[in-house]
Amino acid sequence: MFLTVTTTHHPASDLGFLLHKHPGRVQSFDLSAGQAHVFYPEATDDRCTAALLLEVDPVALVRGKTGAGDGFTLGQYVNDRPYAASSLLSVALKEVFRTALTGRCKSHPELATSPIPLDIRVPACPGGADLVRRLFEPLGWAVEATPLPLDPHFPQWGDSRYVDLRLTGEIRLADALNHLYLLLPVLDNAKHYWVGEAEIDKLIRAGGDWLAAHPDKELITRRYLAHRRGLTAAALTRLAEVDDSAPEEIDNALAAPVVLDEPDRPVPLAQQRRGTIMAVLRSLGAHTVGDFGCGEGALVRDLLAERSVERIVATDVSVHALQVAARKLRLERMSEKERARLELFQSSLTYRDDRLAGLDAAVLMEVVEHVDPPRLEALERTVFQFAAPRAVVVTTPNREYNVRFESLPEGKLRHRDHRFEWTRAEFRAWADRVASSYSYAVRTLPVGADDPEVGPATQLALFTKGGEA
Q: Which of 41, 79, 328, 445 has an alpha carbon 20 to 30 Å from 297's alpha carbon atom?
């Protein structure tokens, strides 16, 4: 069982950093069904290829009562499991590239969040050419699926159900790996292990923001959950909740926004915003994080998926927003270990609250513009003086960019609850004043495409205490 990941991003050898596997040596990993090996057939600045080879032990499969899928004794030993991509390869991806799947890379955080040119090859992929295209093309991949004959010496026998699969496109590496991790078992239409409720969480986590909008999400869900009706229904319900979060596409408030997305952008602005924030938090090495003004919990969901974050403090002034967040995060179904990581409570950022203190980082994602200007100084004292985290991340709309939204009338703010929207100069002036007042260093960053005339759609300020930002 074999797959390769190739990039021509310069320098291409940075692929080793993203995968957390050194190009200069072969690494092997013991798995329950065999042994996985990672090596680099080529690693230059112009082109780099990482290969994952999984050697399946057919005896281990039988002893574990996995893989064969039938009661025919010989069929347990003579089958396609050692050769065809399946849930075995999916598990190997997760075990070998665990950190890469999360999109974390301390040495290259910006690269980890950026689309790069990728060429992925799976020489023996089940499912057939039509299904492969149905599943991967909506995700932005160019798909080449060459059918493999049953026997090249007997062409009259026709094609097998396997294809030589090649995927090309400019996609974030973590997203590409998650696509493979989720869809390989779907194409095989089988799992080599028992499928229980925990698989729903894996599905939602790996599906990220794309599965809920996928035209074949029902097919994907049903096959991934081994056609178990109860699990499929529960998963589709949760996906519907993910899909009904349209208000977050431009804001994290509950009220409906005026604008739903950036023009001509394939990735929603809300997703770009959260991705940038997560990259900043990873670069800071933050283990305790506050989401101040968490709204419906979109960022909290990303923080929960980040295993390096040990404690999450999520607050909002709106009780209704917190109720929606609790429902979407499925608090009642969290394990005790997961629930212990999250503190979700009501709090106003214009009043001192000692429960907000002692954090590595705090995030105010699209929050400050909802505060009346005379109350901003109270928010500043609450966050920067009393809570005083090691770092603060603030995002807010860039008013200059509003002219790029065709559906937004001139002079209109993006959201009916916004009290103001700053230009880039106004945001920098506010950030510099706050940093100077509370002994922080600050720098501003763009979120989304940085338009040469009007700047980015969203602007971000990173405040760091006791050092340079």
A: 445
